[in-house]
Amino acid sequence: MTEDIVVVPGDGIGQEVVPAAVEVLEALDGVDFEFTEYDAGDETLAETGEALPEETYEAAASADATLFGAAGESAADVILPLREAVDSFANVRPARAYPGVDALRPETDLVFVRENTEGVYSGIESEIADGVTTLTRVVTEDASRRIAEFGFDYAEQNGYEDVTIAHKANVMRVTDGAFLDACEAVGDERGADYDDALMDALAMHLLLRPEEYGVVIAPNLAGDVLSDLAAGLVGGLGLLPSANVGSERGLFEPVHGSAPDIAGQGIANPCATVLSAAMMLDHLGYGEAAADVRDAVEGVLAEGPHTPDLGGDASTEDVTAAIVERL
Amino acid sequence: MTEDIVVVPGDGIGQEVVPAAVEVLEALDGVDFEFTEYDAGDETLAETGEALPEETYEAAASADATLFGAAGESAADVILPLREAVDSFANVRPARAYPGVDALRPETDLVFVRENTEGVYSGIESEIADGVTTLTRVVTEDASRRIAEFGFDYAEQNGYEDVTIAHKANVMRVTDGAFLDACEAVGDERGADYDDALMDALAMHLLLRPEEYGVVIAPNLAGDVLSDLAAGLVGGLGLLPSANVGSERGLFEPVHGSAPDIAGQGIANPCATVLSAAMMLDHLGYGEAAADVRDAVEGVLAEGPHTPDLGGDASTEDVTAAIVERL
Ligand SMILES: CC(C)[C@H](C(=O)O)[C@@H](O)C(=O)O
Ligand SMILES: CC(C)[C@H](C(=O)O)[C@@H](O)C(=O)O
User: Fold this and answer.
1) In this structure, what are the phi and psi dihedrals at residue A132, rounded to the nearest 5 degrees?
2) Phi, psi of B170, deg, nearest 5
3) What's the rounded Cα separation, in Å, for the pair A223 and A216?
4) Which of A219, A254, B19, B170 has the least CB density, counted as fewest CB within 10 Å?
5) What does the pLDDT profile of chain B (327 residues) look like in tens digits?
6) Is the Cβ of A126 closer than 8 Å to some Cβ of chain B?
7) Which pLDDT score is estimated for B132?
8) Which residues line ligand 1 (CB under 6 A)?
9) What pLDDT digit, counting tens, does each position of A96-147 carry?
10) Contact between chains at A133 and B138 (C-beta distance less than 8 A)
11) What kind and span of H or E run contains B10?
12) pLDDT at A237 > cutoff 90
């Protein structure tokens, strides 16, 4: 069976790391992909007046899966509609420390399961009077239950014993109260073990004792912030993949952005995108190929070559070739 | 002149660290305080049905300054009204690493200037339909300008060269857009140097390169989360003081909570509260006494004794006595 994959490199280093991931996918045996490239991002905006052309949106909405790189200033105009296009309600962001990579906290092995459709991302904002602006944060019981089900399933299927529900229900009593209640109800129905944590306290505890945490189920913005924080624990954003999933489709992207400071130099770390491609393989049902890709990346992280963000002087191409060689 | 100080120890270790800070203040020459103690917190709630009795609120609203410890489950019902009682719009939270204390990032010297009146703390929430809840996040130009003025002043007066405006204006375009615009306008009017940062990216950068940051001006929740994160960088919440200021009055409190796990054992670290008392001294115009207290705390942090949270085995009383001895 041929898998129809939409590829959206986007801006900056997206143009370097997405081709690297495609190279890795093409080197796999027994998986047949058809890649079609689409435009999005700042350059597309400058050329066409739209950061996310309708045809890119439609392609993502009908492909088996989409591999996205990064976008610059227009990131929110690209990534938020794309997450919606693939009908994803869960943003899965593993953050692990790897042997061979200098990490602030080598014991880190976390997976953020971020609610991907509501919270402050509702987009309902206005200037209601001169100098007075409001945003309506939306939290529904259905979406909260849905992400909790996903998070508890993920923990079980992937062998994580600790499940933590992040929230700020002491201040956002009604909305995060609803989120927490729904997540607790799901946990209790399953007889699962779990804990909850205020997102502020959790930010500190993840720094001081990351080994005590596993899967963190979080509202949209909390998941956004805490997963970036976790990138700091494991050596930077160059290592963090993500999967926007929930429906048959899916959108797979590195957590990092377009990194204009190093774009065009051929030194971007492709690992986050290659690991995102591995999450895509899992999603499409190629578990073995996914494991092979992950092993290859781990081998390269352990023994090199490394790009400059990890203290090495290898190029994107060197690292990609080394990954391919290990497959 | 006698300064009329309201003292609210609250719950848990608040009952231990607030008396310690009072002991330090009483040991100072040339400062005449009259302390009056008031109740608040979980125990007060259990006894009186109210976490924050009207008389505590009124006392804080009319005192020269209030020194608060911590509250348990009822923290939000105590601390949020108290912040309002003293008419504070700025929550100042320094986070520094100290010689002698094991810190994840010994180069950390940050001050969070957190907007203290709006954002998601507006309290406007409801269940608008079955299973559908909303919160109205409020951001005004006036409050944003006011905190920016305060933050730029603070940076100038305290010798910080880096000012960073934290926000999530790529998603909360109208509300955080207004916050960012107002802060930038203030910075530009002053010809000040500043930068802005997305709060998610900032969470990571503070971990990886804290030395590049100084004063961080932040909306309410961003300041809440980022300052707790910074506690993780410098060795824990036992060291972080805070000042809720903006009017003549002020409310001074450690960033930590009531720590029920160690309450009643006499081993709580009093430093955060003693440093909060030093911020109070500064606020009341006793700059020299404030510097003396800070020096004494730094001396004890450098040479011991240390409470268990810092790896020592000293008691709250040992540490307090050592601080007093150095005055
Ligand atoms: C670009 C931005 C809209 C996005 C988000 O806030 O989700 C980014 O920070 C991310 O985490 O993917
Ligand atoms: C207790 C809670 C309401 C409070 C806050 O969110 O401000 C606390 O986290 C703090 O930072 O002082």
Assistant:
1) -125, 115
2) -75, -20
3) 8
4) B170
5) 799 999 999 999 999 999 999 999 999 998 999 999 999 999 999 999 999 999 999 999 999 999 999 999 999 999 999 999 999 999 999 999 999 999 999 999 999 999 999 999 998 999 999 999 999 999 999 999 999 999 999 999 999 999 999 999 999 999 999 999 999 999 999 999 999 999 999 999 999 999 999 999 999 999 999 999 999 999 888 999 999 999 889 999 999 999 999 999 999 999 999 999 999 999 999 999 999 999 999 999 999 999 999 999 999 999 999 999 999
6) yes
7) 98
8) A 75-76, 79-80, 224; B 170-171, 200
9) 999 999 999 999 999 999 999 999 999 899 999 999 999 999 999 999 999 9
10) yes
11) strand B2-10
12) no
> What are the residue numbers of the active site of A?
121, 168, 200, 224, 228
* Pairwise CB contact (< 8 Å): A135 & B134: no
Contact indicator for B216, B194 with CB cutoff of 8 Å: no
Looking at the DSSP bridge assignments, the partners of residue A244 are: A91, A251
Q: Which run of H or of E encompasses B216?
A: strand B215-218
Tell me the CA distances in angstroms from A106 to A96, A208, A268, B14, B309, one per residue in order. 8, 12, 23, 34, 22
- B137 closest CB neighbour out of A134, A141, A224: A134
Closest CA to B134 of A84, A122, A153: A122
For chain A, percent of residues with pLDDT exceeding 70: 100
The dihedrals phi and psi of A67, each to the nearest 5 degrees, come to -110, 120
Tokens found for residue B10: 């609250």
pTM (2 d.p.): 0.97
B/e letters for A84-111, b = 16+ CB within 10 Å, e = fewer, are bbbbbbbbbbbbbbbebbebbbbebbbb
Q: Does A209 touch chain B (CB under 8 A)?
A: no
Q: Contact A6/A59 with Cβ under 8 angstroms?
A: yes
Q: Which residue bears the tokens 């490199």?
A: A9
Beta-carbon pairs below 8 A across chains A and B: 156
CA distance B130 to A178: 11
- Which one of A80, A204, A237 has the shortest CB-CB distance to B228? A204
CA atoms within 13 A on the CB side of B234: 28
Helix (H) or strand (E) holding B138: strand B132-140
Question: How far is Cα A161 from Cα B193, in angstroms, rounded to an integer?
Answer: 47
Nearest ligand (C-alpha, residue B73): 2
CB of B221 within 8 Å of a chain A CB? The answer is: yes
Hey, how many other C-beta atoms are within 10 angstroms of the C-beta on A170? 17
The answer to whether residue A86 neighbours chain B at the CB level (below 8 Å) is no
> Distance between alpha carbon B207 and the CA centroid of its chain, in Å?
20
Provide the token pair at A65.
């899966």
